[in-house]
Design brief:
Oligomer: single chain
Structural class: alpha+beta
Radius of gyration: 17 Å
Shape: globular
Number of domains: 1
Number of strands: 2
Strand content: 5-15%
Helix content: 40-55%
Strand order of the largest sheet: 1-2
Number of helices: 3
Order of helices and strands: HHHEE
Length: 74
């Protein structure tokens, strides 16, 4: 979905300055379409609900995990 990628990229650049609905309207989306895009991005774990400035959504942060091998099991 092109609109979803457009919104995601704009959200990345927005950095919490505009709220999520205003950002969608700036891109030419109505409120219903913006909420649908947000729901899809939440479902895909690309964004998370987090009060961040004017916007209530933030990009998901990838967790870097170190894998430690256990040499002995007891």
């Amino acid at each position: 979905m092109k609109n979803k990628e457009t919104y995601y990229n704009a959200l990345t650049e927005n950095n919490g300055r505009l709220n999520e609905i205003d950002l969608g309207e700036k891109l030419g989306f109505d409120e219903k379409e913006t909420r649908e895009i947000i729901a899809q991005l939440l479902f895909e774990y690309k964004i998370e609900y987090l009060a961040h400035g004017a916007c209530d959504y933030s990009l998901m942060k990838t967790a870097k995990r170190k894998h430690k091998k256990e040499t002995q099991y007891q």
